[in-house]
Design brief:
The structure is a single chain. The chain is α/β, with parallel strands linked by helices and about 325 residues long. Helices cover about 30% and strands about 30% of the residues. The protein folds into two domains: about 200 residues, TIM Barrel; about 110 residues, D-serine dehydratase-like domain (Lyase, Ornithine Decarboxylase, Chain A, domain 1). Helix 3 runs parallel beside helix 4 and helix 5 runs parallel beside helix 6. The protein is globular. The two termini are about 25 Å apart.
Length: about 325
């Protein structure tokens, strides 16, 4: 991803909410990354403790962030998502150092941000930045979650192109603005980002079963799996109860063919990773997982699961174990 950004002559400010690990963060330093994206002030503080001093908090600002921001600004250049002009004045009163403002745009997805046609709010925010000697306008940002609902690379690319058209119009109206774009399917599949100046994907560090289904990666690209203990075989139902529920994997699911999957069983050996056909998590409760097991299939003491969404799964655990047995510590609970 770092090479792609360099080849496209755009900045790379990866999102660290997926891995939440100081050790893995240093892998990005090895690729020349100096600025990062996070999803909370607490997460920003975690990475600031390891010397990261240029951090974007990619979540709409709310006043409860202020105590953490007061601490962070001592060592860190902050970029904040602001959607209310009054909050710029509030931050001016509370902070001592300059901060940068990003206007998050809602491309019609309906999550957070200012609707891309709401020029009145955009102008009010820009005016507030202009009048505040502490705030500087950094640019427009879009993360369109609809690419994660795509069922093919072409479908994901179509969603991305719609967003790129919106960003191109914003760049035309506000040529001084940086254009920031962040989602893993788009960043993985596109080779031309148009007017985009900066990308902020995060999930690509591990990928997952959802990304495999979208076509934004192959199974061999996935780098995070859960090893779940086998507990009780129910051959009459062609099911295996495993110790792996929503508290270990999250409740995310994906439609694969005519079934709902909460994770896909795989085998791993020296030749690579392969699917175990017909073996998938069909349902989850808090600790229990139900793994479908075709008749005659051998059951071992544990099963390796490719999670639907690596960001959520990783967030629920306190460390990673590499294939060589090394433990990598991480932060938990974003």
């Amino acid at each position: 991803m770092a090479s792609k950004a360099k080849n496209c002559n755009i900045s790379f400010t990866p999102h660290f909410k997926t891995h939440q690990s100081l050790t893995i963060g240093n892998w990005f330093r090895d690729e020349g990354v100096r600025a990062i994206t996070v999803s909370s002030a607490g997460m920003a503080s975690y990475f600031a403790s390891d010397g990261w001093d240029d951090i974007t908090i990619a979540f709409p600002f709310f006043p409860g962030m202020i105590p953490a921001l007061i601490h962070l600004e001592k060592t860190t250049r902050l970029r904040l998502f602001l959607h209310n002009p009054q909050d710029i004045e509030l931050l001016k009163q509370q902070l001592k150092n300059p901060f940068r403002v990003i206007i998050e745009m809602d491309p019609g997805y309906g999550r957070s941000g200012t609707h891309f046609r709401d020029f009145q709010t955009i102008e009010k925010l820009l005016d507030a930045c202009e009048k505040c000697n502490m705030a500087s306008f950094s640019g427009f940002y879009i993360h369109d979650g609809r690419t994660y609902q795509a069922k093919s690379p072409a479908s994901a690319a179509d969603h991305a192109k719609t967003v790129l058209n919106i960003l191109a119009a914003l760049k035309s109206d506000y040529p001084q603005a940086s254009i920031i774009f962040g989602d893993t399917p788009s960043a993985s599949l596109l080779n031309d980002f148009g007017v985009v100046d900066e990308i902020t994907p995060g999930n690509f560090v591990f990928y997952d079963w959802m990304q495999v289904q979208i076509g934004s990666c192959s199974l061999d690209d996935v780098a995070l799996f859960c090893l779940l203990p086998s507990a009780q075989l129910r051959p009459e139902y062609e099911k295996l109860i495993v110790h792996g529920g929503a508290v270990h994997l999250s409740k995310d699911s994906i439609q694969v063919g005519d079934r709902i999957s909460y994770g896909q069983a795989v085998s791993m050996d020296s030749s690579g990773i392969s699917l175990l056909d017909g073996m998938y998590l069909s349902s989850l409760s808090q600790e229990h997982g139900i793994l479908m097991v075709p008749k005659g299939r051998e059951v071992t003491d544990s099963v390796t699961i490719c999670p639907v969404h690596s960001c959520l799964t990783a967030n629920l655990h306190d460390s990673y174990i590499t294939t060589t047995g090394k433990r990598i510590e991480k932060r938990i609970l974003s």
